Amino acid sequence: MAVKMVAPILKDAHARIAQLPMGAALSAQVDQRATSVSFSTLISGGFTLNVINSIFVDPHLNDRNSFDWLTCILAHEYCHVQQGFWVDSIEQELIAYQMQLRVANEIGLAVGDDFKRFAPLDPKNKSDLEQARAFILDLAKFSVPTQTIYASLPLFQPTGAADNIGAAFKQLSAAGLAGIQAWQLVRDK
Ligand SMILES: [Zn+2]
Questions:
Q1: How far is CA 158 from CA 90, 99, 115, 147, 154, in A?
Q2: Which of 123, 122, 151, 157 is nearest to 138 (CA)?
């Protein structure tokens, strides 16, 4: 099996991640699951919906000048595929942001303090997760739907309901417009 992607730039970013010491296992996992990766105008940045084994990426990143940034965002989303949860949490987001940072460092992409500040946080520490939520909300300050999603996420990853489709869509629909967008993504598949 292999990851499902059409755009050449996505294939190149996938190959780039596979070459990195911290990326080889991630890209192998995405290949094994045959996850679908595509550009969608509904997304800013990246978004993973494990319910439908799909990653969606902002079409603004379909540009060779943004290749390093695309690679880092894809590595973040690959983290979510590896986590495999249908319901997200700040804990999982922090782990994904830290992977994104490690990839940026490895490929020499300069990132601002708004990303670097995730590095020292501990995904198992409650007050660090509260900090992470504040940083994520700050990153999403120009997108109300994105803010709504992250404001509604639990700090720690729920264990019982995490693979429950009802719980997954309850979380998505709680996000209002973002939820509607997620439904559209499912329908478009
Ligand atoms: Zn994420």
A1: 11, 21, 25, 20, 8
A2: 151
**Is 2 domain-assigned?**
no
**Spacing, Cα 73 to ligand 1 middle (Å):** 9
Does residue 3 lie in a domain region? Answer: no
| 1 domain-assigned | no
Number of folded domains that form the chain? 1
DSSP for residue 41: T
CA of 64 to the centre of ligand 1 (A): 23
The side-by-side arrangement of strands in the sheet containing 46-49 is: 36-39, 54-57, 46-49
Q: Please, which residues have CB within 8 angstroms of residue 61's CB and are 6 or more apart in sequence?
A: 9, 39, 69, 70, 73
Does a structural domain hold residue 106? yes
Could you tell me where the beta strands, DSSP code E, fall in the chain?
A: 36-39, 46-49, 54-57
User: How many CB atoms are closer than 10 A to CB 140?
Assistant: 18
Q: Which domain holds residue 26?
A: 8-188
Can you give the pTM of this predicted structure? Answer: 0.88
Å from CA of 6 to ligand 1 middle: 22
* Residue from 35, 36, 108 nearest 71 by CA: 108
Least confident of 67-71, 127-131, 164-168: 164-168
